């Protein structure tokens, strides 16, 4: 019985150790060394090459090393076994930190002060109370919930939107297409933490931007596929969107000649809002393998219709 590991972002060693400590009989292979294909019972992966997963006749589950599994569901070569994603597992607190930082960055006018500093300009701007700076969180799961909780603690006016109608305690919640424009109409900043599905692809586009108040901001920590990049560039050019902080892109790494790199209103980060840390995530993965070995259902199995 064995596990096959593939990730260009995660070192295999801590995972090898975690499996060896609990399942001493289970071999741990790092792709492309997969050992005997018949023995492979679990695949532990982040962004595997297309078709990598359909070589193992006895595969029991695909264990994703991240929260979003859009890349696995989009690959017709992903076998028909449970795909299990990380729930929280150290990712939610990191993503909430990033979101809080981004909101503070825009709310406290850091882009303007940065430009002023480059010209030695001492020019205070009138304060805006956090209670009057409405933040819209898109996504009401574990990640969106923690983002909202932190922002509420800081005194922001927080509202959330989800496709499914999930709500976050203590936060004004909006659901579905019917309430999207109403949700957006007050958002000085939108933080996208949705899962990428066929229902949310391209959701950060002209309609969304134009439904937000003039001079508002966009933060994308979901997936590049949520954002229509040309629509954002146009909204930034017109000034309707005053700035964006983007962590995820249609093409990663973001190509060197992409206009986001040089746009002074855009902050680019290299998909680091939430990075899987083995010591935070291994307990959840190991527990799921234990459950499956006992014949129990795993926690975090993705509903393929829903996409997360
Ligand atoms: C990161 O992008 C993740 O899906 O965990």
CATH H-level homologous superfamily name of the largest domain: NAD(P)-binding Rossmann-like Domain
Tally of structural domains: 2
CATH architecture of the largest domain: 3-Layer(aba) Sandwich
What is the straight-line distance between the termini? Answer: 28 Å
CATH class of the largest domain: Alpha Beta
- Write down how many β-strands occur, each being a DSSP E stretch of 2 or more residues: 12
Rg calculated over all Cα atoms? 21 Å
| CATH-defined fold name of the largest domain | Rossmann fold
Mean pLDDT: 97
| Strand-residue proportion | 15-25%
Task: Going across the biggest sheet, name each strand in turn.
Answer: 8-7-6-9-10-11-12
List the secondary-structure elements in sequence, H or E. EHEEEHEHHEHEEHEHEHEHEH
């Amino acid at each position: 019985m064995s596990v096959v590991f593939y990730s260009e972002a995660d070192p295999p060693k801590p995972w090898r150790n975690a499996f060896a400590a609990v399942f001493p009989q289970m071999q741990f292979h790092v792709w492309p060394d997969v050992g005997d294909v018949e023995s492979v019972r679990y695949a532990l992966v982040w962004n595997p090459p297309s078709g990598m997963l359909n070589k193992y006749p006895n595969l029991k589950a695909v264990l994703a090393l991240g929260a979003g599994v859009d890349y696995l569901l989009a690959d017709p070569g992903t076998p028909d076994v449970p795909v299990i994603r990380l729930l929280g597992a150290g990712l939610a607190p990191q993503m909430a930190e990033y979101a809080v930082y981004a909101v503070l960055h825009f709310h406290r006018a850091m882009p303007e002060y940065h430009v002023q500093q480059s010209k030695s300009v001492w020019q205070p701007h009138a304060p805006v109370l956090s209670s009057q700076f409405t933040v819209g969180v898109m996504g009401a799961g574990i990640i969106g919930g923690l983002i909202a909780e932190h922002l509420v603690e800081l005194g922001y006016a927080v509202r959330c939107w989800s496709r499914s109608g999930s709500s976050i305690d203590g936060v004004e919640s909006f659901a579905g297409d019917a309430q999207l424009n109403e949700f957006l109409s007050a958002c000085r900043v939108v933080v996208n933490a949705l899962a990428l599905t066929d229902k949310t692809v391209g959701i950060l586009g002209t309609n969304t931007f134009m439904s937000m108040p003039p001079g508002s901001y966009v933060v994308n920590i979901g997936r590049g596929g949520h954002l229509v990049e040309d629509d954002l560039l146009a909204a930034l050019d017109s000034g309707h969107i005053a700035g964006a902080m983007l962590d995820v892109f249609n093409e990663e790494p973001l190509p060197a000649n992409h206009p986001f790199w040089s746009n002074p209103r855009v902050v680019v980060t290299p998909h680091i809002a939430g990075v899987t840390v083995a010591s935070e995530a291994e307990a959840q993965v190991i527990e799921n393998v234990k459950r499956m070995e006992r014949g129990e259902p795993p926690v975090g199995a993705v509903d393929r219709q829903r996409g997360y």
